[in-house]
Design brief:
Structural class: alpha/beta
Helix content: 40-55%
Number of helices: 13
CATH architecture: Alpha-Beta Barrel
InterPro entries: Bact_Lucif_Oxidored (IPR050766), CmoO-like (IPR019949), Luciferase-like_dom (IPR011251), Luciferase-like_sf (IPR036661)
Organism: Ornithinibacillus halotolerans
Strand order of the largest sheet: 1-2-3-4-5-6-7-9
Largest sheet: 8 strands, parallel, barrel
Domain Luciferase-like: 1-293
Shape: globular
Family: To bacterial alkanal monooxygenase alpha and beta chains.
Distance between the termini: 12 Å
GO molecular function: oxidoreductase activity, acting on paired donors, with incorporation or reduction of molecular oxygen
Length: 331
């Protein structure tokens, strides 16, 4: 089973943004050592608990401090930008780090309405033009524009992925011959039906190309189920704080999370959120990941983990890799 990492570069309450970005770099290094297929980093704007607003900048740092693991954006929020500039940025990365670069594309704003207005003159119109922008970007990455090139042109171009949670995004990926990433961790939609639509409507962009699917899931793994549940509490409380726009202090410590007063509605919200997270010991997590891969017929599972302690986060990825990869090496 292929496993990968989606990093949102969370800032814990005892960290600076610099600390969080350094931990992101270290996580990519750990992922490479453990055998994860790829490391992607997300784009968010003016969200106090998340450090990365510019994946294209962070990826140059990640690439310079790793050697083999594929690296990419999860995702570049294309409606904010001109496709030509995005193509230049990722062609630069693909030139510096050959055969390692993915450019994941999304259409969410990634921040508040005020931030969206600061980034884009007309975001809603850009969202309406999103299918055209995706097609334009692919033309530049494939170097198929007769008039201009998004130089430098790398020997191995970046691989464009479409990220989404809807039938609309799946069909857009299929129509453009793009691999598709479904955000299971952030969706209540029928992902199985959505991915089936993607596969059934896939139109190859290049000879021999076939549909490819990544499913992204939130996971917290620890040595025991009890420990995993305890570690997960910080992330769950932070999600409640985020929903209430109480995020000035980052992911809370376990002590602060335990002290946080929850209403009955918030307790019910946490139980609902836990249904979309895999929490458990290594064997429990492995079995649930296998079930998820089978359910979606996914080619790869991408794991997003948010904890207060960077050590708990790295340990979660380490325990999963040991349980999954060691078993497969024995076969």
């Amino acid at each position: 089973m292929r496993l990968s990492i989606l990093d949102q570069s969370p800032i814990s309450s005892n960290q600076t943004p610099y600390d969080a970005l350094q931990e992101s770099m270290k996580l990519a290094q750990v992922g490479e050592e453990l055998g994860y297929t790829r490391y992607w980093i997300a784009e968010h704007h003016d969200l106090p608990g998340l450090a990365c607003s510019a994946p294209e900048v962070m990826l140059s740092y990640i690439g310079a401090n790793t050697n083999r693991i594929r690296i990419g954006s999860g995702a570049v929020l294309l409606p904010h930008y001109r496709p030509f500039k995005v193509a230049e940025q990722f062609n630069m990365l693909a030139t510096l780090f050959p055969n390692r670069i993915d450019v994941g594309l999304g259409r969410a704003p990634g921040g508040s309405a005020e931030v969206t207005n600061a980034l884009s003159e007309n975001f809603l119109q850009s969202v309406q033009n999103y299918p055209t922008s995706v097609k334009e970007l692919i033309h530049y990455l494939d170097n198929r524009n007769a008039k201009i090139s998004a130089s430098p042109i790398p020997e191995n171009p970046p691989v464009p992925w479409l990220l989404g949670t809807s039938k609309k995004s799946a069909l857009l990926a299929a129509a453009n011959g793009m691999p598709y990433t479904f955000g299971h961790f952030m969706s209540d939609n029928d992902g199985v039906a959505i991915i089936k639509e993607y596969r059934n409507n896939f139109e190859p962009r290049k000879q021999g190309q076939t549909p490819e699917v990544i499913v992204t899931v939130s996971v917290i793994c620890a040595e025991t189920t009890e420990k995993a549940e305890e570690v997960a509490l910080s992330s769950l409380i932070w999600s409640i704080q985020t929903d209430k726009w109480e995020r000035n202090h980052g992911v809370p410590s376990l002590e602060k999370a335990k002290q946080y007063t929850l209403t009955q509605k918030e307790l019910e919200s946490i139980e609902k959120k836990k249904q979309n997270i895999i929490i458990g010991n290594p064997l429990e997590v492995k079995l649930k990941l296998h079930d998820l891969r089978t359910k979606y017929q996914a080619d790869e599972i991408m794991i997003n983990t948010i904890t207060y302690s960077p050590e708990d986060r790295k340990l979660s990825y380490q325990l999963i890799a040991k349980e999954v990869f060691n078993e497969e090496n024995k076969l």
